[in-house]
Amino acid sequence: MLVVIASWIYYFALCLLIGIEIEQLLVKLLKGKWKFQIIDFLVTGIVGITIYASFFSLFYKVGMIAHIVLFLGAVYSGLRNKEFIKRLGQDGKKIVFSWEGFFFFCMILAIAFFTSRGNFHTDTNIYHAQNIRLYEEYGIIKGMANLQLHYGYNSLYLAFAAIMSLSWLLPWSLHTTTGFIEIILCLYALHHLKGFRKHTVHLEDAGCVAILLYAFVNVTGSMSPATDYPTMFLTIYMITVWLRAIEKRAHYCVYALLSVFGVFLGTMKLSAIAMAFVVIYPACILIQKKKWKEIVIYIGMGILVLAPYLIRNVILSGWLIYPFEAIDIFDVDWKVPLEYLLVDANQIKVWGRCLYNVALIDMPMKEWIPIWLEHQERYEQMLLLANIVSLVLSGYSIFYQWLKKLEIRTELLVLYIGLLTSAVLWFVMAPFIRYGLGFLLVLPILGIAVWFDGEKKGLYSIVSGCMVLLIFLCFTSYIDRYFTDAGVFVKQRLMDPYYVVQKDYDDGSTKSVVMNGNTIYYNDYIKEEGERNSYHYFPNTCYEMMLNRTTLVSENMKDGFIPKSEGIE
Fold this sequence. Notes:
Layout: H1 2-30, H2 38-57, H3 64-80, H4 82-96, H5 99-115, H6 122-137, H7 144-147, H8 157-163, H9 177-193, H10 203-218, H11 228-248, H12 252-268, H13 280-288, H14 292-317, H15 338-352, H16 365-375, H17 378-403, H18 410-429, H19 433-453, H20 458-493, E1 510-515, E2 518-523, H21 525-528, E3 540-541, H22 544-548, E4 550-552, E5 561-563
Parallel strand pairs: 2-3
Antiparallel strand pairs: 1-2, 4-5
């Protein structure tokens, strides 16, 4: 726990300093006059560091040199913005040396406890940890997805995890970034909700409640550098800031910047890319005002965010976006064969639909939905019911406002479009609850907030109030389930010896072969009794059959893996 907290303090300083410098640059570039909170600087720093590490990985491993350059950039920012940082520090002191600060300290200890121990996410042991090791050891290797198709799932979050792992300095690789994102967002949410009674509008409050609820549901996964958790955390953060902007009647630049952030979320996990659709609101304003220079700047920022993601996709798999066969524009020797890609893409869909058989990929929706529902736990079914009720409630509230000729904010409608689009794409593509949990938590809470802030009279008050009560009842079983999980986790892990140093990555059972003079490892499926790669052996594949259909181009690992000429097994 002590190492976890120490790493968070260091991450906080780096992200804050880098974030301040980036925000200062944006203000100067866009001539903006908006006001940022500390959390905004921190998240901007996370984005900036991630994009930097991703670009760096295209040329060299993300290790000592990459981190020293980052550190020097933070020092430069600290010297350049010394007075501004001093003012932030003075504001922070008032919180630290107060009862609120004591409560925050207890929250930090609690999340540090969960971040120091527990079980890794299944996918972390399958490919997340290996992808981090790829960043640390090589940066990138051509055709890595041929060795294991999962390596084509290119999440830039793992670049952030790699540059913050400090594996070049420490005798182990830190994996505390998920807990860091969780704790900074939770502290922000708690700080804001402290003034709930004084708030005349509760839209931002809704986002903060969603942050805390998502953290509560996933707190036992805080140790794992899994891509789902930070993506959903930052998606809810984006929604919360959008809601804050509505409350403050913010400048359109804020919405435009959030739209760029939506693109960034898609590079963390494709399931979040639909949030970028909210760009329609600031885009319409910019075009209407003929702000052509600003349009070029925002497009440039979007390209800057997207470029390392797309380049890495091509280098890892030969496809611009893996595993989507529709965009097939590259003909390189390390390209993952189409038949492999289709099997992988179909597996994601049928597993999400709880069919577990690729042959059932074309099953009509009316047939697989009942099967999918039956496989969901009761508390998950209740969450889905809460979302259905919240959609009815939101639609009813908007209709009532229109009927009474009350103000309906366009920005709120656009956000709803983004959320609903994201939810629909999630459901159609791969409806694992964890893939879309952020959207599934936000929609009901936002529906309640919109109702809470609106006018409530007569029949509308009775009907809408009943729907709000039903949503609360649906949430109780979900909260009860995870309250029990967290309690059991604490009871079982209390005596684990991780109060100083965090638990290391799991060490799976492996075998090895020599390929063109290089040792390649693979999962000993019999001993391991399941799919598990080990971070400690690189490169490693979970599947011996993938190893058997792949070869290295040369003795130089960087030249990459290419598929053998034989067909799929």
